Every structure is written in C-alpha cells, then in structure tokens.
Amino acid sequence: MNHETVTEPAPDWAGLDNDLLNTADAPRMGTDADLARFAVDGVRPERVVFPGSVPQVQRVMESASARGVAVVPAGFGAHLGLGAPPGRPFLALSLVSLNALVDHQPANMTLTAEAGACLTRLQAVVVGAGQWLPVEPPFPDRTSVGGLISADLSGPSRFSQGTVRDLLIGVTVVRADGSVAKSGGRVVKNVAGYDLGKLYCGALGTLGVIVEATFKLRTLPEARAVVRVTCGDMAGAEGLLGRIRTAPLEPSFIELVARLPAAGSGYAVVVGFAGAEEDVADQAATLSSLVGGDDRLEELSEQEGGAVVAELRDTPALGEPVLGLKVSVLPARVAAFMTALEDEGARNGSTMAVQAHAGNGIIRVRVSPPDDRDLRGWTSAAVDRMRAAATGLGGTLVVERASPDVKPVLDLWGGPPEGLELMKSIKRTLDPKGVLSSGRFIGGI
Amino acid sequence: MITERLLRALRDILGGDGVVSHATELSVYDCDGYTLEKSTPEVVVLPRSTEEVAAVLKLLKHEGVPFVPRGTGTGLSGGCLPLGAPVMVSLTRMNRILELDPANRRAVVESGVVNAWVSRAAKPHGLHYVPDPSSQMACSIGGNVAENSGGPHTLKYGVTTNHVLGVTLVLPDGEVVRLGGMTEDTPGYDLLGVTVGSEGTFGIVTEAILKLYPRPQGYKTLLAVFDSVAGGSAAVAGIVASGIVPAALEMLDRLILQAVEDAFHFGFPREAGAVLIVELDGLEAGLERAAGRIREVCESNGATEIRVARDDGERDALWKCRKRAFGALGRLAPNFCCQDGVVPPTRLPEIMERIADIGEAYDLRIGNVFHAGDGNIHPILLYDERDREQTERVVAAGREILRECVALGGSLTGEHGIGVEKVALMPLIFTPDDMSVMEQVRSVFDPEDRCNPNKIFPSAEQHVEVRSPRRQAAM
Ligand SMILES: Cc1cc2nc3c(=O)[nH]c(=O)nc-3n(C[C@H](O)[C@H](O)[C@H](O)COP(=O)(O)OP(=O)(O)OC[C@H]3O[C@@H](n4cnc5c(N)ncnc54)[C@H](O)[C@@H]3O)c2cc1C
Ligand SMILES: Cc1cc2nc3c(=O)[nH]c(=O)nc-3n(C[C@H](O)[C@H](O)[C@H](O)COP(=O)(O)OP(=O)(O)OC[C@H]3O[C@@H](n4cnc5c(N)ncnc54)[C@H](O)[C@@H]3O)c2cc1C
Asked: Hey, which of B49, B57, B135 would you mutate to test ligand 2's pocket, going by the most ligand atoms within 8 Å of its Cβ?
C-alpha cells in the first residue's frame, strides 16, 4: 500500500477557515503578501497561518487532518525549495510567531527554544554567556530553529562540531493528527526512550511540526584563526589536504573552495583553528610549514576570517538562478570528485562554484548553466552525469536547489536509498493521511 | 515453545556448535550485569555471519517465535534478559574487524567485536575509537550501539551515536538493511540515528561502521581530593560552568575509593570524602594553562590536595582503577545494583545529598562512581540477594533516586538504557502520547513485537506475566 496512490478527498478549505477563525483563540492568518512569501517552487499556498501557541498549532493540524488539507510547515519560508514541489494545494504553517527562548542554562550548557525562534537572535543571547550553538546555516538571520532541524543545515565547522543531529537533545512535535509528542529531554546525556529527534533532522517537515527543541551548547573559543592557502591546481590542493590530515592539528574546519573553470590559481584550502590562544598560534605555524612551494598562504585577521566564513556559508545569495547540489563522498575521494567536476565543466560549458567541507567529504556545487541552452534537458543530463561520478566513487548526490521550471524533470535524490521501505512505513505510520509535506521528500514520501 | 523440529532447523543453519540448548550451559545466559531479575532462554544460537543471522530470523519469523539479541551481557538494565523470548541470539562469534581505513578514519566491524579491540587495532595508525565504556574490555560494539553507550571520555567527544556512521541491521523478518553508510549525510530519514539506542528492539545489528579519531597529542590528568562529596560536586558544577570541557570528569566517593584502594593499591587517600579525576587532552600547548584553571576551580571549592599524573604509566593506572571500580565492589557485598540517572550538572550537589538521605532512610550502603561532567550519576546500591527484604529495599531506593533525578530536571538513564529495569518509571518523563509515537516507530521495524519484547515501554510490562510465566525475578 502506497499512500501516493490513494486518492485524497477534495480539501475542505471553508471548513478549515471555520475551524480556525470561529474560536476565541484564533491563530493569525497570513495576508496576500504572505502568500507570495511562502510560495514553494513558485506555487503559492492557499492559506498561511501563524499560530502563536502550541494549542493553536494543534488546532491547525487537527483541522487540516479532518478537512483533508495538505500542510507545509515553515519557519521564515526563506528556503522552502529544498525537496520536491508540494504537488497539491497546501496550507503554509509558519512557526515564526512561536518564537520564545524558553530556557537557557549557561551553567549546564543547554538551550531550549520554540521552533520559530530566529537563530541569530538565539546566538546573540548565548554568545553573551560565552557560548554558541555550533551550527552555521546559510543566512542565520532567516533561519528558524524548526528550519535548521528540518533542513539539516550545516556549515564549515561540522568538521569539529558535528551537525544538528549531534546537538539536538530534545524535541517536541505536533503530529499530523494534532497530538503533541516529545522525545529526549533537557540534559546533555540521556538514553531514555528512542532518540526520535534524529528522525526529524532533515525530514523537511514530513513527520511532524516541530514546536520546541533543546540543544547542547559549546563554549566560545578563546581564540580563532583562519588560514587561506591558494593552490595552483587540484593536485596541489590534494597534497596539502593530505598533509593536513596527518599533521598534529585539530582544525575547526577544512574547506576546499574552487571556481570552475579554474583560471590559474583556482583552488583554495581554507582552514580554521579555534581554542586556546597558544594552541591556535601553534597550529597556524604548523600549517604554514606544510604549504608547498607554489602555494600562497595568507593568515587572515579575525575580521577577514569572519567575513570569509560568512561568505562560505551564504553563497549564493537569495534568488540567484543556480543549480545547487550536495555531494557526499569519502573525505579521501574529494579530489577525485573534483577532477570529475573539472571534466564535466569543460564538457557542459557551465561555471561552477564549489565548496567542500573537505574533512567530511561533503561537496556543495553551485552550477550556473550557459544561458543559450534548453535548460531542462541540459540540467537533467548534467545532474545525471555528476551523480554518476559521485556514485562511481561510492557517494551520493542530492539536488538542493533548482529553478521551479527545471525541477520537475530532475531526479532530486538519486536512486532509492537503502531502507526506503522502512522510511515509507515510518511516514505512513506517523502521518497516515499524508497531511505533512507529502511527496516532497525522497522516494515520493 | 521450542520444539525439537525448530532445534533441528537451527542446527541445520548454524551447525551443532552454533546452538546451545542444555540447561547447564543455558544458565550462564540468565542475566546481564543487572542481577535483580533473571530469566533463562530456552535456546541460545551463535551465528557467525549476517547471512546466518538472516537465516535464523527468517526461520523464527516463519515459526512466530520471539527472540532477544545479546552481545556480551554486560548491560546494566536487563536489556538482554529474555522475557517472553525463548531464543537468544548471541553475537559473540561475529567478532572480526572487517576493515580499517585510516585515510578516511573509518573502521568496519562485526557487532560482536569487543569495544577495546577497535582502539587497539587503530593504534598503529595514531587513531582510536572514542566511546570508552568502563566495561570496554568486555562489552561489544553491538551492545554499545543498542544502548547508545557512553564512557568517561564521551564528555568531550560525544557518545556512541556521534561515532557510528552506519550499521547492517537484520530486521525481525530476516531482511537485511544497511542504514547510514561510509559517507556522511546519506539521503533519507536518519534511520541509523533512531536505531542507535533502540535497545535491541529493531532487529539485530551485525556490522557497524565507526568513526575513528586521532589520538590526542597530550594529556593532563589530575586527581583532586575533597573532604566531602558536596565539595566534589560543587567543583564539578564549577568546572562545567567555567567553559573548559575536560575530556573526562569522574567522581569517586569514599566507599568506592576505599574498595578500589584495597583492591588495586593505587595510593588513593583512604579518608577522603571524594576525589575527582579530571583529564584534559588535546594539543600540548594549551594544556598547562587549562590545567591551572581546573586547579583553581577545585581549590576554590575546597580541594585539599591536587595530584597530577606524572607519566602515561600513572595515567593508565589511574584509569584502570576507575574502570575496574565495579570489580572491586565484590569485596563490599555479594551483589550491587548500579543506577544511571542524570541531572543537570548544577544540581549535582543536591542529588548527591538526596542519595545519601535515601541510603539512610532505606538503611542501605550506597557508593558513587560516575561520569560527573555530564551529570550522569551512578549510585551503587550494595546488597545480598539472599536477603529478600533487603533486595526489595534496593529496588525501592533505586526508584526513589531516579524520581529525584527527574524532579531536578534530569532523566532516568544516561547510558544504560531502560531495559526491563526502569520500564515502570517511563511515565515519569513521557506521556502516553510521547510513548505511543515511539511504539509506532518500533512497530515499523518489528511489527510483530518479536524482537526483544517486553522492554522499554510500560505497555509491555503489563503483558510480561502472561507472556513469560518462566520469569523468575529475584524480587
Ligand atoms: C543549499 C541551501 C541554499 C540556501 N540558500 C539560501 C538563499 O539563497 N537565501 C536564503 O535566504 N537562505 C538560503 N538558505 C537557507 C534557508 O533559507 C534557511 O536558512 C533554512 O531553510 C531555514 O529557514 P526557515 O527557518 O525559514 O525554514 P523554511 O525555509 O521555512 O523551511 C525549511 C524546511 O524545513 C521545514 N520546516 C520549517 N520549520 C519547520 C517546523 N517547525 N517543523 C517541521 N518542519 C519545518 C519546511 O517544511 C522546509 O522543508 C539555503 C539553505 C540551503 C540548505
Ligand atoms: C563494570 C561495568 C561498567 C560499565 N560501564 C559503562 C559505561 O561506562 N558506560 C556505559 O554506557 N555502559 C557501561 N556499562 C554497561 C554495558 O557495558 C553497556 O551497556 C554495553 O554497551 C553493553 O554491551 P554488551 O555487548 O554487553 O550488551 P548486552 O548486555 O549483551 O546487551 C545490551 C542490549 O543490547 C542489545 N544488543 C546487544 N547486541 C546487539 C546487537 N548486535 N544487535 C541488536 N541489539 C543488541 C541487547 O538485546 C540488550 O538489549 C558497564 C557495565 C559494566 C558491567
């Protein structure tokens, strides 16, 4: 039984309006401008609703379930484009009005916040206590806690800090039927019950509406340094990455950056260090001893370093018409994939911005297609070839961004992953009516 | 429930030496490290490969027979106790390290591999496997995955779930799935993440892909001595709040110290109220100054003496004492029950005081040796199982301690799992709705409730008596 094949009854929008508005505690409904803002791949929602409390979220979900209305949970809606288009008319349920900082316990290094809380705001509070939530999603000022978890966003420091799954210690969701369920707790070490938080990480809102989350925090480092080494070619960069791997260093991140086609000094290895002052200074010195003769090393000032990291985090800017890919291979195979990309670029005539979390084997590719082509055919062929290169190296490729007119012809995720039947079964079990972002996730989930 | 025909079929799959069914041999499988309850399986099978596990589970599916996975039986919550599961699948013969990939810092191991073997194999490459349960010389990687085990050094580096990239899981119907993988961010739901810590209720893990880390360049290991547990606890809270994250931060109280000293003659101050073992690791340059700050925090909380391990030998000796502390308890009482509650580190002074009060109220001796830095207490309640009335007091006192942990904002278990032991306490932290989602997720993996039944959820407990007439709980 596949729920994609079940024909849903026509959604009862009038009934939904009645349920939501004719009560004493009605949630705020969005305006026309909100309809535009929460469009997914160019398709506007039928309604936008901004519940301000958990009971309001519950009421929205109860009603949507009963009225056959599809729901796409959202934060700021800045990047709802991850995943497939919704496929049917939907209600956007934005959590931005549910945004309280619930509990910051500096001495226990934990933070609990409601799902709509803005990451930049939370960071400002915990930084005041000498701590940070060590995630670096793009555009943190437009990232909500729920979006951070659901889109499983990560940045350069995942090399030393892990990803959201490593930091999330408790989560509360409103389920498709409106019931509330939590897992985990507020202490950093806890194995009571299943760790359901992991399931919600990267689930794109298909399993439940996150309403509250608790994270571990880390201490802000005493000192930081960013070193950039520009290399003539990929071979030079590869050699340097290998030497960094075996040297007595504990980098906070190891990034490989390239623009293809590479002109002259096309590759840069950007390495971050964080920690005690003497450690950071020592390591920067060690790194400079590893640099090859043709490479150019720059030790960036604190400010320049910050700017470089922000740039690594935020490119491309909102609305750039690019194809965004995330490739994952073994760390030692990053170079091999880069070589494949160079070949692909030479063949397809595009320009590419590549940024690899080299220590993790995660490669983000932003492709700007040549403008004189049949975009659909060109893109789908290019994606297929790059995916073949990734899978040939034992890796995966996921399309993270594509323009709405191209997306329908793309295979966003690649072939069925191991365990797809279990994944489908999880979705069917937790959201039997397929209310939450159905069809947006891998394998039609 | 086990017929001669089923035994024959199992022998056909595993060979004669892969099936244990004699009562005398079975009795060693009647409990794990949690000895308050015992129950003997009807048959133990010892597969050698994923294929054999799959064949066994297919057979059991066909016959409708429940089973329980077992690693090396060091669990402390009765996780591998067979309750309504006549067949026990022991993974001890799946003990090969299949692949070491130093360049990518990965190890692929069978689930019966003993935790400490992984670091031993990785050592020539300058790498190690970080999670180091005190039982690491004995416990299996499969058990670690099932319990999401921690250890002294998981304070800084994270517990098992942060170090496992993939597993091969044989589902209860015999189907083999690979979750996660050699690479990061495999697309789809994080089924791996929810399998880690599922206490053996999703199927049998036969292989795991582990992350390895470079061995730290240097260590600084301090032993801080306090007159009282209160002083030690306050120092722990102070260290956590200072922002320095030690690699390990462990506490031992007087009762434990004396037992350990009598057993291993390390030179612990026998009259101390408590000691902290604080280990810093990482790059050499910054260690000295960080150690200085730890020293200050300890002194300002009343440390009477601070020793620093002079060399690797002394450091190793200290850790041996810590990790073998449970073994030393045999000198104090025939049996012990180790609780595993968690509190926010700032509440450590309170919980330690309440544990002492509870010990007095129930007239029990309680020692403490635990992972203080993450608030994960291990009160150890001493008893003699032949004394039925005392045993009952141990159960009641243990529950009261866990209730106090919850009241202080903590949890029932930091690393040992709910198992059979804490089933009845789950409602203290989870609502019926919370648990129903968990049970629904379980049903996705094990729709017939045949894989390690009657664990974790209280809804299970109600059925235990009916399903498991053979259960011979010590209480
Ligand atoms: C590859 C990539 C490129 C990006 N590019 C840009 C860019 O160009 N410009 C820009 O501004 N930002 C960009 N971002 C960042 C992105 O906009 C947001 O940081 C991120 O998506 C979170 O934003 P949000 O909170 O508004 O969540 P949304 O964008 O509203 O939602 C993100 C996903 O999470 C789900 N979700 C959100 N909240 C919840 C919840 N409470 N419960 C359950 N599910 C929920 C949604 O259904 C959706 O699938 C990019 C992110 C990525 C990964
Ligand atoms: C002296 C001592 C010290 C300890 N110190 C620590 C510590 O510091 N930190 C800590 O976290 N724990 C500690 N423990 C507890 C215990 O060692 C861990 O829980 C360990 O992970 C159990 O491993 P095991 O192989 O013995 O598993 P078992 O006890 O055999 O089984 C434990 C659970 O795992 C399941 N299981 C086992 N193997 C598999 C498999 N392959 N597939 C599916 N399920 C499986 C079983 O069904 C059971 O539910 C300690 C125990 C002792 C006795």
From this structure: B135
What residues make up the domain containing B227? 218-328
Q: Say if residue B349 is preceded by a cis peptide, omega within 30 of 0.
A: no
The reply to whether residue A189 touches residue B342, judged by beta carbons under 8 angstroms, is: yes
Q: List chain B residues with pLDDT less than 70.
A: 460-475
Q: Is A1 on the interface with B (CB under 8 A)?
A: no
Q: What is the CATH number of the domain that holds B17?
A: 3.30.43.10
Q: Which ligand is nearest to the CA of B74?
A: 2
Tell how far the Cα of A176 is from the centroid of ligand 1, in angstroms: 20
What kind and span of H or E run contains A99? none
Which of A37, A79, A133 most suits a substitution to test ligand 1, by most atoms within 8 Å of the C-beta?
A79
Sign, Cα dihedral of A139, A143, A147, A148: positive
- End of a domain among B214, B245, B280? B214
Report how many domains make up chain B.
4
Cβ neighbours of B199 (radius 10 Å) = 25
Does residue B58 lie in a domain region? yes
B200 lies in the same domain as B269? no
Pocket test for ligand 2, best of B87, B130, B134, B154 (most atoms within 8 A of CB): B134
Amino acid, single-letter form, for residue B26? L
The per-residue pLDDT for A316 is 62
- Which residues in chain A (52-111) have CB-CB distances under 8 A to chain B? 105-110
Q: pLDDT band for position A327 (50/70/90)?
A: very high
pLDDT at A318: 54
Per residue in A250-308, pLDDT (tens digit) is 999 999 999 888 766 689 999 999 999 999 999 999 999 999 888 899 999 888 988 88
Residue B424 makes CB contacts below 8 A (sequence gap 6+) with B399, B458, B461
CB within 8 Å: B346 and A191? no
CB–CB of A192 and B413 under 8 A?
yes
Q: Where are the alpha helices (DSSP H) in B41-140?
A: 50-63, 115-122
Residues 243-302 of chain B with CB under 8 A from chain A are 243-245, 282-283, 285-286, 289-290
Question: Terminus-to-terminus CA distance in chain B, angstroms?
Answer: 25
Residues B107 and B197 in one domain: yes
State which of B214, B247, B275 marks the end of a domain: B214
How many residues in chain A? 445
Domain with residue B402: its CATH number is 3.30.70.2740
Residue B109's CATH number: 3.30.465.10
Domain A320-414: top CATH class = alpha beta
Q: What is the spatial distance between Cα A90 and Cα A93, in angstroms, rounded to a whole number? A: 9
Taking an 8 Å cut-off on Cβ atoms, the answer to whether A426 and B189 are in contact is yes
Domain A221-317 has CATH 3.30.565.10: no
The C-alpha of B239 sits at a distance from chain A's nearest C-alpha, in angstroms, of: 9
Contact A201 B190 (CB under 8 A): yes
Architecture, CATH, for domain A1-220+418-445: 2-Layer Sandwich (3.30)
Picking from B284, B385, B283, the residue whose alpha carbon sits closest to that of residue B337 is: B385
The CA distance from B247 to the nearest CA of chain A, in Å, is 14
Q: How large is the ipTM?
A: 0.96
Q: Where are the beta strands (DSSP E) in A155-266?
A: 168-174, 180-184, 209-216, 218-219, 223-231, 253-260
Identify the three-state secondary structure at position A219.
strand
CA of B355 to the centre of ligand 2 (A): 25
Has residue B473 been placed in a domain? no
Q: How far apart are CA A264 and CA A130, in angstroms?
A: 42
